[in-house]
Amino acid sequence: MERIPILKLGDCLLVTIQVDMHDRLAMTLQDDLTTRISETHAKGVVIDISALEVVDSFIGRILGNIAGMSRILDAETVVVGMQPSVAITLVELGLALPGVRTALNVERGMDLVRQALTMREEPNGRPQG
Amino acid sequence: MAVLRDEQKQVRSQQDVVAVRQIVREWAVYAGFSLVDQTKIVTAASELARNTLTHGGGGMVRLEALNDGSRRGLRIVFEDSGPGIPDVEQALRDGFTTAGGLGLGLGGAKRLSSEFEIDSRPGQGTRVAITRWR
User: Fold this and answer.
1) What is the separation of C-alpha B88 from the centre of its chain, rounded to a whole number of angstroms?
2) Is residue B103 pLDDT above 90, yes or no?
């Protein structure tokens, strides 16, 4: 069965979507990711969508679901690399991805995950250093 | 207004919805659309192709490359012979869904298009036409 690969980097999971996903493939990714989070106790999920030329309401909903489900499983999700034309279209479509953290690229996404984890570890909620 | 060329494709599976996105992208590039305009019409087509599959039980999509003398455009017509939409006004409203989605498909596709027509008859089917001009 066709699947999107999920890489484990430390306590982070990295997903790079490089194909135009049909709906079932996106649903499979959602299921696989939640399973991997609970198996690996990952604290962060970074989803790189820089190769996606289109994000419609279905894929947008899946991204929102993944962010919500991973939060419940105690992991932070960051969606990175969205093309500007995709961002413009999504907002016009009526989908501003509420509840989904975004960053410009994988590096910044990883930084965001680390920051969020540091905030959590500090008892007073302030980042270290 | 002249139709420069046209093509029909079936929408019978989720793979066909992906194929519609790809062919619409090719035609939008051919019509000379900017990257943002290409993305808008491809996204609108993706929403409508999914509706054709999910609500219409599959159907046909027709692409037409247009020229009205001063500008070029792309029209995409989605036709199914499914159950039809009982209340089109309601279906166009954001958040209205019968498929468990976000209810942005039809209204979103309308916002992403220059022109939008819908004709639906209960028990006979639905025809949605969108046009985007360069």
Assistant:
1) 15
2) no
Q: Is B3 on the interface with A (CB under 8 A)?
A: no
B46: CATH: 3.30.565.10
Across chain A, which has 129 residues, the per-10-residue mean pLDDT values are 92 96 96 97 97 95 95 96 97 90 96 88 62
Domain A6-121 has CATH 3.30.750.24: yes
Please give the structure tokens belonging to residue B24. Answer: 């619409």
Please give the residue range of the domain that contains residue B30.
Answer: 2-133
Quote the pLDDT of residue A39. Answer: 96
CA distance B131 to chain A (A): 16
CB contact (8 A) between residue B104 and residue A94: yes
CA of B114 vs chain A CAs: smallest distance (Å): 13
A51 touches chain B (CB under 8 A): no
Could you give the C-alpha distances from B12 to B3, B103, B119, in angstroms and in order?
26, 21, 21
Establish if B18 touches chain A: CB-CB under 8 angstroms.
yes
CB A50 within 8 A of CB A81: yes
| Residue A84 structure tokens | 């500007």
Summarised one tens digit per residue, pLDDT across range B66-98 is 999 899 999 999 999 999 998 888 888 888 887
Interface subset of A 7-36, CB within 8 angstroms of B: 20-24
